[in-house]
Amino acid sequence: MPELPEVQTIVNELNKKLKNKAIKSVFVNAPKMVQIGPDVVSNVRKVKNGQVKKFSDLLIGKKILSVKRRAKLLIFDLSPTSPQPSHKASAGNARLRRTSGSLSILAHLKMTGQFIFEDKKLRQKTGGKYRLINSSNAPLVQLPSKHTHVIFKFTDGSTLYFNDVRKFGYLKLVRDNEIDQVRELSEYGPEPLNKEFIWGRFFTAVKKRPKGKIKQVLMDPKVVAGIGNIYSDEILFHAKVRPDRKVSSIKNQELRGIYQNIQKVLKQAIKAKGSSVGDFIRTDGSWGQMGKFHFVYGRAGEKCKVCGTVIQSMKIGGRTGSFCPKCQK
């Protein structure tokens, strides 16, 4: 599943490529992938009659003003149909507001979602074919493919493809006055790269879970937004703390080390354009390079880059945690 650095990479790239582009048409090949309104997207998705047509009709003619991120959620700000009256924003969601625009697309990639933006230049370069799995042996796939579920075509001839092998991802269309009702947004904890991510707040949130294993706590979006399996492993390695330790056993100095390494690791990963593992690819089909800098994630059975000890792995809450038994205590 793409984590904060991967989603931020997509946001950075799409924000440059899509800004002020007008939507000419929207094709939805998997109705369950789209929703209108702020309600939680159910695992058992039932599509109301006419929802797909309404979803498409509401978007045609809109311009994309910007692309943002909250935790692992992408937020596409759209131009308004007509001038909208101003309204006060709550403190928690003030950063999501804008001075113009009545609609937003909230996009979650879940496990295997991908956005590919293709203009004439990229299509000439690739022939419209991309490796959608991060393996040099993976076949080149022509887009749109059987895993392309939503297609946005813009008035300048460019196209945005939303691919998802497992179909767990979604696109949710909401109005400004519904933002406060989107549960995903209201339940997220602090953004680890923002000023709100202060030591005291992190310390308090973690200490409220004394029986929790530290890897699971870091992956809880109510504690820190956007950290998943990859970066919880890497953060804990640099902090020299085993992923299976209970919070109650972690000294304040060790917790401080975890806090300090959260920003360090995430910033490095964004600079490297994310970790291309599984299905994550960038918006032009290329791979992120953070995998070259992994110390433990995905390296079970290999030697530690620091001490030479063989990296081990274990199941923690249904997820695999990798660690060095010598460097991490």
Explain this structure to me?
It is a single chain. This protein is α+β, with helices and mostly antiparallel strands. Among the domains are: about 5-115 and about 165-185, Alpha-Beta Barrel (N-terminal domain of MutM-like DNA repair proteins), CATH 3.20.190; about 200-290, Helicase, Ruva Protein, domain 3 (Orthogonal Bundle), CATH 1.10.8. The protein contains 8 helices and 13 strands. It has helices spanning about 5-20, 50-60, 120-125, 185, 200-205, 215-220, 230-240, 250-270; strands at about 25-30, 35, 65-70, 75-80, 105-110, 115-120, 130, 140, 150-155, 160-165, 170-175, 310-315, 320-325. The protein has a 5-stranded mixed beta sheet, covered by helices on one side. The model is unreliable at about 80-100 (pLDDT under 50).
Structural class: alpha+beta
**First and last CA, distance:** 27 Å
- Which radius of gyration do the C-alpha atoms yield? 21 Å
Please work out how many helical segments DSSP would assign.
8
Q: In percent, how much strand structure appears in the residues?
A: 15-25%
Helix content: 10-25%
- The helix/strand order is HEEHEEEEHEEEEEHHHHHEE
- In CATH terms, the superfamily of the domain at 4-114 and 164-187 is MutM-like, N-terminal
Largest sheet: 5 strands, mixed
User: Care to count the β-strands?
Assistant: 13
The CATH architecture assignment of the domain at 4-114 and 164-187 turns out to be: Alpha-Beta Barrel
Indicate the CATH class of the domain at 4-114 and 164-187.
Alpha Beta
Oligomer: single chain
Q: What's the average pLDDT? A: 92
What shape does the CA trace take?
globular
